[in-house]
Amino acid sequence: MESVTAFWKQPSRAYRNFQVVFTFLSLNFIIPAFSYAIAPQIVAEQFHQINNLMGGVPYTFPEEMSRMWRYLGAANVMTLGLMCFMLQINLRKFKAILIPLSFLKGYNALLFLLGFLASPQYRVFLAIAILDFVTTGAFIFFAGKAIRETDLLPDNVLIPRPGLRSNI
Hints:
Elements: H1 2-8, H2 13-38, H3 40-53, H4 67-89, H5 91-94, H6 98-118, H7 124-150
Helix pairs in contact: 2-3, 2-4, 2-7, 4-6, 6-7
């Protein structure tokens, strides 16, 4: 219980908030990446439900049947999870990962926005674009703020302490 209290009362609120948000984001990518690869029907059903809820026309393309694109998507989402996790392990050492992480998610958001603009009847594309733009903003905001706030702090005051030797 002492370590939980120390985590919440550490000198860097930005680092604490970054750790909380990136724990959620890491799990948000890693867990679905497995379902994309082995249970695509679950993801497809959620996709259809959101589209229907938003008043979109039925999406009849059998995306879950395409192993090539499904596996590629699962690998990309797992990579997002890995990058988030690496930043959590040692934000100082791996801060450069923030650039490809933000690019990959931001580019995905842009593609879904373009997909919506090309086919506005599939409203789920807009929902995904918005969520991905917000996620990209969260990457930049929380990691960026934590990087700036912790630049002058020693590792031993940060909880969790940066792992894999930060050389600072």
